[in-house]
# Entry
Amino acid sequence: MARKLMKGNEAIGEAAIKAGCHLFFGYPITPQNELPEYMSKRLPEIGGTFVQAESEVAAINMVYGAAGTGSRVMTSSSSPGISLKQEGISYIAGSELPCVIVNIVRGGPGLGGIQPAQSDYFQSTKGGGHGDYKLIVLAPSTVQEMVDLVQEAFDLADKYRNPVMILGDGMLGQMMEPVEFKEREIKKVDHSSWATVGMGDREKPNIVNSLYLDPQELEDHNHKLQRKYDEITANEIRYETYNCENAEIILIAYGTTARIVQDVIPMAKEKGIKLGLIKPITLWPFPYDVFNDYVDSTKAFLSVEMSMGQMVEDVKLAVNGKKPVHFYGRSGGMIPTPEGILENVIEVLGGLE
Amino acid sequence: MQEAAHGRAPAVATGIKRAIPESIVFTYQGDGDLASIGTAEIIHAAARNENMTVIFVNNAIYGMTGGQMAPTTLPNQRTTTSPRGRDVSSAGNPLKMAEMLATIDGPAYIERTTVHNIKGISRTKKAIQKAFQNQVDKKGFSLVEILSTCPTNWGMTPVESLSWLEDNMMEYFPLGVYKDIEEEK
Ligand SMILES: Cc1ncc(C[n+]2csc(CCOP(=O)(O)OP(=O)(O)O)c2C)c(N)n1
# Structure
């Protein structure tokens, strides 16, 4: 199929439709408006449904309802709106419903700004709402990757009956790049054992809930969820490594920041510094184990983020004290420059000698 | 000035007013803010008859975020999320907030005005003055809904938008006093 120039936010919408998602519930917020706007135009053309909810709280509960019927459903928002969705997300995770939630992150806290940021890492990967639960969190760094991951997200959601979050940022949502929608078959999953689609021939109704008043039952439910999270961790970790063999310093970056770091690698080479990059694609489950491959050969790790330091905590867990772990971040919509990152690398190297 | 999260101004104002009852407290809210995400907060502030003033600017669209459908967007009105015009069968019907809030026993004063012409502007000034005087006099919750234009997101010139307001919005959102406890006496 031919490549098409598309804005990140619109490409997400088209990817979702191609993955069989015909239901979208949203609420306006910058910098993701192009996505619901695209869905409001496209979905009626294909017999799908777009509803602009009265709030993000309502939108995520519409998703809960639709997901409970086993339908492919998506919502999107940006940071303050995603905060409002946390209650619903916890219910969706607790009830084990499949859906896709897109967060085009902007700077916070509070109303913050509308420029790109990565400051929702904790909220996304550590369970932003109440209770013990995990989202599968996918972090694309190009519009093409966003398209591929959105399509995959629906399959993962169905396979594990778990909400999947696409964690982008204002830059990825707003940028235009050529994309190709690969032909892929829509995996039909049989949800008839749990989805609320009417009694049919059933003797007992399917019930979607997350209430377990008996503490032992609730603990059993939590163990069941945990076994699922272990299975996801065993099967679904995705990351890329660049130039890590014998790198003096390995940088860790995801999304937009990973692209910037890729530009720093040749700049550093000119100065005689060998840099590597580990780019996590699943932020949860986090690729802890890949660090073992390089921890002996590298001098130090440097986590580069558009935040005040969030993913760096997972990097520290992965490195487990074996080598120094440093952090460099910009926040509030300020974007790290290749020069700024390189300066930091040189500082880290100086400190090592 | 305290900034509130989208829709929550009546709750924030309640907190300020209950902490310092002598202070004069008002909220300034758009239609997306007051009639969509913040519907619960405005209804319950009115029901509690919080002694505050609400300035509610109704321009039938989400302005700040770039022209999406609002709860007050008129039937068949085109916006970026109702590209074929608001279809009430799937996108719902516009909310008439002044009328709705006037059904609640709590509020002291609710009026809808317009600022698209000189007469409307002077009427609006009087209404705002009254809404604040009520608060000074401890009469209770007072709200002025002000019909207003948004040329940028309506895709019109300022002059065109004035007549669009008069020809379309005023019919759906009739001007007038919907509640006034003074007149009820
Ligand atoms: C929780 C949350 N969701 C969404 C937004 C984005 N947002 C900012 S202002 C606004 C509404 C704008 O419309 P309206 O209230 O009618 O005011 P106007 O700009 O038209 O004056 C929205 C949705 C936000 N700030 N917070």
